[in-house]
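hiii, so i know i said id send this last week but things got crazy w the move. better late than never?? heres the sequnce for the chain we talked about at the cafe, plus the structure i predicted for it. fair warning i was half asleep when i ran it
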Amino acid sequence: MTSTKSALSLGALHAEPGTKARGTVPADLGTLTVDIPLTLVNGAHPGPRVLITAGVHGGEFTGVDAATRLAALLEPGEVHGQVIVCPVANPPAAYQGRLGVSPLDGVNINRVFPGDPDGTPTERLAAWLFTHLLDGADAYVDLHSGGIDEVLDDFVGYRLTGDTELDAKTADMAGALGIEDVILGLNADGGNSHAAAARQGIPAILVETGQLGERDAETARRLVTGLYGVLNRLGVLDAGRPATTTVRDWVWAAGVTAGATGLWYPEFTAGDDVTAGQVIGHVVDPADGQEHKVHTPATGRIFYGMRGLTVAHGAELAAIAVPAPDDRPH
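okay and structure toks below
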């Protein structure tokens, strides 16, 4: 971790050591400019720089609520290092959309990191976030939630890189959050924000809490407590070393997709254990009433699944994980 005791500036926002600044910074997306809300907490003491984002997708409210609460609670005099909190990282999706894709271009930003400064508006936004917020960070936490049509069993995710020291730091962050289930990516490939950060050598975790687009205050408060645990573990807050949660490690095993377009009638909830071949719902054609059974392709646990009534052929309906093998890469 780097030792930081200097001014913290992003756009027109500026925070000297021992101060906090709140406001927005404009991001140029080519066809338009969006204002990114930020809180800069520049601690009175040297320490690491930590980035926390939420609102990457529309309709995922728990993380947005928790990040906003955390930004208000953090006192610079108690902070070692710097904390950058971005509670709404993707304003077009958060304010104008309610699904994973942006209404600007139909792109899921969490599939295109580190972005493209010359690409679509969403690709440009990913590049802006990566360049302006992630650059220089010593640790990264990206907060997500179950969307408006999604049941979800809380979990933490991170990617294994093969770098023993980096993977150990990331696992330590995940264990400090207070969530028992941790889903490992066996490599750092792909366009997820935390995967792209891991490729840059930044310890990064994905946090999934809450479901069905709920704005439950108690869930948000629990997440804030978990974030305090992570900041304690990183040395940003001087409250002693928190106890590590005993976690269960999982890996993704399979996704369940719709074999037909129609009306989706699920017969499971998040957290259910299922067996390969088990029927977990039906897709019904509203034109003729024909039912298409949906079977699980693997034995394991459903960590999230769709609850929306209308689905298209090929749409994701559920995701299944299995306990991580003992011989996984370390």
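btw The chain has a mean pLDDT of 95. thought thatd interest u
miss u guys!!
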